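Aim 2 progress update. The chain analyzed this quarter is reproduced below.
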Amino acid sequence: MDALNELGIHTIVDMTSSQVGKTEKHLNTLGYYIDYDPAPVMVVQPTIKMAEAFSKDRLSPMIRDTPSITDKVVGKSRNGENTIFHKKFDGGHVTLAGANSPASLASRPIRILLCDEIDRWPASAGKEGDPLNIAKKRTATFHNRKIILSSTPGNKYIAGEGGSRIELAFLRSDQRYYYVPCPHCGHEQTLEWDQIKWDRSEEKEKPETAYLECKKCEGKIRDHHKSRILKKGYWKAHSTSKGIAGFHLSELYSPWKTFVEVVEDYLEAKDDLELYKVWVNTSLGRSFESQAGDQPDWQKLHDRRELWCEGELQERVLLLTAGVDVQKDRLEISIVGWNRKEAWLVDHLRLPGDTSQEDVWDDLSELLDQEIEHPSGETLRIRGLCIDSGYRTTKVYQWARSKSKRRVFAVKGRDNLDVPISAPKIVDVNTRGKRSKLGVQLWNVGVSVLKSELYARLNLDRPSAERVKEKGYPKEYIHFPQIDEEYFRQLTSEVCVTTKTRSGRIKYEWEVRYRENHALDCFVYAMGAYFIVGANKWKSKNGIQFYFTK
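Predicted structure tokens:
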């Protein structure tokens, strides 16, 4: 907020975690320009609906409850000049826009531009191109313009490939970090995640013991010290930039978040790749760098096979899911066993037959009902099955409809979906043309997300025998039986590449580099079933045991 009046600064970059008052900074900025320095202002949210919510839930209450600006804005509402998306005040106005709406970004010249959560903006506003560039052009006619860019970061920015918008903006700034003194020795330092310590052992983590260790004296900085050291802190630039002030702040600084809570959030997220990514972004305020797109070495995976055969269940398997890929002359199925995040390929099967006829679907029904013997003496059945509906759609819906009580899910892969699974959509309609709640539901699967997670797991090295004996396998490790090398060629058949569109934006695509990719598709759909049945949310070993085996 001080940088708004800093001489020579035209752009302010705010790359932060959540829970550090980012929205309040925006509201205070708006109040300042309404009351002290009237100007045309635009606030851009990721979507037009979020802009509407910001106006109703945050901006309007602030105007109503702040006497110094209430009359300047509300007094003109009877003339129709005060709407949800446009509020006029003496000497200026506030326009609210969505990055996904080209019309809301265009037309008006703007002196003050506030862009919120820019890493959640779409790559293009309709067919108009990058919404950030469109919004910035609105300020071109003002020599005293101010552009405020704020966001929690997303995926790491890589030159020539794209990534986090806010990280790129921060790298171009003077990169200011907040230094605070140690309450014990006075050493001035930034607060970093690797300074957080807590009592931990193989048996139990104790987040309630969390504290931050001073970089110099190794003294324990507790939560009750935070308010005192924050008041004595100051910003220090780590780079130089002409006109761009950049600020980074993590949740470790938040007055509303304790060190204990940050550690608890970390422990909850660390074993789930997607949850961990969110934690890095929203708690540390850092971009997430993943090697997930690196194509695994099929030969290396083939060489690390274990001494058991296809169709056998290993002792630690507690849940079975399956993924089905539909072809013209066959169905391909992967059955995957789970224990929390750890996975085992139980079997990869091919059911030959014309998929326009009933026989092969009867074979699939028989497989679904099959009970597989567990080393404990019990038997397990498939508890969730995802089947691709992109080919033979009518047949897939017909079969899924008949198996709705067996947790069979018709799915469609979506490359542009940024979550593993999205809410299902009902596709069946009744005689009145209305969607039938008892009909088939179509689930969208974020295949790009799941392929990235799968590749990250496949790139894990085989642990040493000593490591396995002491700590077990890594929690996201995938085990394979004595299956042929063709399976591994198909499992690693795609690679994530980046291309540029005509508008210049970066687009990520998965390209097939081997003649067939059915094993990869099947495993991804089995992962989708794992998420749909909610297995990723279980924490307690007893809870998992009960849920998986009943």
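Residues 546-550 have pLDDT under 50 and may be disordered. Residues 423 and 443 are 7 Å apart (CA to CA). These observations will guide the mutagenesis experiments scheduled for the next reporting period.
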